[in-house]
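Researcher: I've been going back and forth with a colleague about how Methyltransferase type 11 domain-containing protein might be arranged in three dimensions. Neither of us has a model we trust, so I'd like an independent prediction. The organism is Nocardioides dokdonensis FR1436, in case that matters for your notes. Sequence below.
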Amino acid sequence: MLDLGCGTGFHLGRLARTSATVTGVEPHPDLRAIAARRTRRLPEVRVLEGTAQAVPLPDASIDVVHARWAYFFGPGSEPGLVELARVARPGAAAYVIDNDASRSTFGGWFARGFPEHASPEAKHEFWAGQGWQREPVLTRWAFASRADLESVVRIELPGPVAEEALAEHLAAGGGTEVEYAVDVWWRRF
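Model: Here is an independent structure prediction for Methyltransferase type 11 domain-containing protein. You can compare it with whatever you and your colleague have in mind.
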């Protein structure tokens, strides 16, 4: 299994529970170092330097590819998709999980914070043209405290947009939960 854009390796341990081997690929040295520390006692997990456009793995070596908010896929990400096809074995499955800015509370916030990535029509047209299928998922963030929610929103959104969204959420009686829509794009190779 390949976790492309594994970040700090948060999902690597969980993925290793059901996979013989898991490779996390991450371009950012600081995040990669955290991922390596987090998984150092898991012999079936390795963390490598790489990008979506240059995955340091042999051809046809991966059965499952997982990319969760690794970067915002869509028009312009064709080199990364070509690379996914290169490392995927025949019959492999790939899953890209991305924000859906067309629905949900967080989707509206995301559209304001990242208008260049927010056009659902352009994304849908792009993915369909690349042979991928869409599974829309409506989920929610639930936090133990309002402070935790605010901290995550401030990480995910640009400063002024985060503050505006948090103020609106609080004014609407928002507590510690936020509706969050994502698209799971998938295909077999």
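Researcher: What would you highlight for our discussion?
Model: I'd start with this: The longest strand covers residues 88-99. After that, consider the following. The mean pLDDT is 93.
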